[in-house]
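Bumping with the actual sequence this time:
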Amino acid sequence: MRYGLEFVTLTDVVREVPYKIFQGILAEGGIVAGMCVKKEMGEVGRNEVDRYIHYAKKVGLGGLTWMRCEGGVLTSNITKYFTPEILEGIKKAVGAEEGDLVFLIAGPWKSTYEGGGFLRKKIAEDLGLVPENEFMFFWMDQNPMFEIDPVSGKRDAFHHPFVLPLGDLDDPKCGGACFDLCLNGNELGSGSERIHDAETQIEVFHKLGLSDEKIKARFDYFVEALSYGAPPHGGIAIGVDRLVAILLGKDTIREVIAFPKNKKAVSLLDGSPSPVDEDKLQELQIITLAGDGLDVSDTEEFNPDA
């Protein structure tokens, strides 16, 4: 759900800006993106801007830059680093008009848009832009096979290393047969088609930087099982707790869990976790640093944000 707010990529617009922070990010393959908060959406004063700058750092953004459209031009304490032409380009790209506020974020593509998504949702909630009792589903099925670290160039699996590749594994843009179902910006379920032949699985492991020795040590049993002739297979799992929480308008799945734990992470229904007999620990050669017992008297609900 976009709430009338959306980040747009400004990388080409600001590529020549003499602003060292942006130039350093762009030189490392990062992006710059901007979002316009329209004046009619609600008043966002300087105190609120400072709070959003602090929030941006909490959600993984390196920082948050802002500008306000006044007198037909973008103004702020950093516009001195931008030429009038670049400022006009930003203004047009995000659709800023008189009185509107513009936020700029920058960094690696994935973390920047992930953090930008959290920031956008936070602003929408604060301004009362999130509609009630409206459900919007999103099916994402064109995912990459790998994520590539912009600094090291190392590949990592986008979903997991057992996803069936769709294309040439040597192509950095090779797709993967994985998919996600989302509702109102929340992931409901994730799934994939799986690799079902040993040769492809070994090749994927190699692309992820695993040597033959590590493959044998970690996945020898699995690769051998595939070599016997596994059929094509796949699936998806839906998070029922998450779905119910969204449908009921709850902020957390703890509101719909039958027996949530207290602040000490203890299940009051069964007293779990409970101490393990010393002889069992010795039998399994496990050392525990836990105390003699657990206090389950605290009946207050566990607050994950505390």
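The tokens above came from a reply further down the thread. The domain at 8-126 is CATH 3.30.1360.30 (Gyrase A; domain 2).
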